[in-house]
Design goal:
- There is one protein chain.
- By secondary structure, the chain is mainly beta.
- The protein has 2 helices and 13 strands.
- The strands form 3 sheets. Strands 2, 3, 6, 7, 8, 10, 11, 12 and 13 form a 9-stranded mixed sheet that branches. It has a two-stranded antiparallel sheet with strand order 1-5. Strands 4-9 form a two-stranded antiparallel ribbon.
- Strand 7 (89-97) and strand 8 (102-103) form a beta hairpin.
- It is elongated.
- It starts with a helix and ends in a 5-residue tail after the last helix.
- This is Secreted protein.
- Keywords: Signal.
- Residues 1-17 form the signal peptide.
Length: 187
């Protein structure tokens, strides 16, 4: 009886480790999006207007995603090291829920700012994962490939916003982010 239970546990843990990668999949598409926004600002601090041409590169299906890996209740941290097509690499770590076999936080796959850099780049990304227990040597490690292909460019319709804050007429970044959010990245 004990052998039967051990066999069931072994096979169920192997079945849960069949897919390793990002929860939305490892085939991604980077698409150039663009559009024009007119902003009219008037309020207690002045008035003005601006016309912005917004451009971005959207990652589908998601710019942030969870890592999915093997289930092992002893594990609590995952490290991902992405080696890009040009040979450069980037690493990121997150807490790991070993019971569910999933990172507790989503990894930044694509967004680049002065405060954060993405894990992936366009092309083939070979991801080496290491799953730890209490920051000791890795309990599980392996690799998977995430491909980022170029998608066809998309254009959002022209939009107009009215604001009671003059600073919106001087803030292209925040207006363009709002615009792309409202138009679901021009889809």
């Amino acid at each position: 009886m004990l052998k039967v239970i051990a066999s069931i546990l072994l096979f169920s843990s192997m079945a849960s480790a069949e897919f390793v990668g990002f929860s939305h999949g490892n085939e991604l598409s980077a698409t150039a999006i663009s559009g024009t926004v007119k902003v009219i600002c008037s309020g207690f601090n002045g008035s003005g207007s601006a016309i912005y041409t917004c451009r971005d590169m959207a990652l589908n299906p998601a710019a942030y995603d969870h890592f999915v890996g093997p289930q092992d209740s002893r594990t609590d941290r995952v490290e991902l090291v992405a080696t890009h097509a040009d040979g450069s690499s980037r690493s990121k770590t997150a807490e790991y829920d070993g019971y569910r076999g999933k990172s507790k936080e989503a990894f930044n796959l694509w967004i680049s700012t002065i405060f954060q850099k993405p894990l992936l780049e366009a092309g083939t990304n070979t991801i080496r994962y290491r799953i730890y227990s209490r920051n000791i040597e890795p309990m599980v490690e392996g690799t998977f490939v995430a491909n980022v292909k170029r998608g066809a460019p998309r254009q959002c319709p022209t939009a107009q916003y009215t604001s009671s804050d003059i600073s919106d007429c001087n803030s292209q970044y925040s207006i363009c982010q709002r615009y792309f959010d409202e138009y679901n990245n021009c889809q």
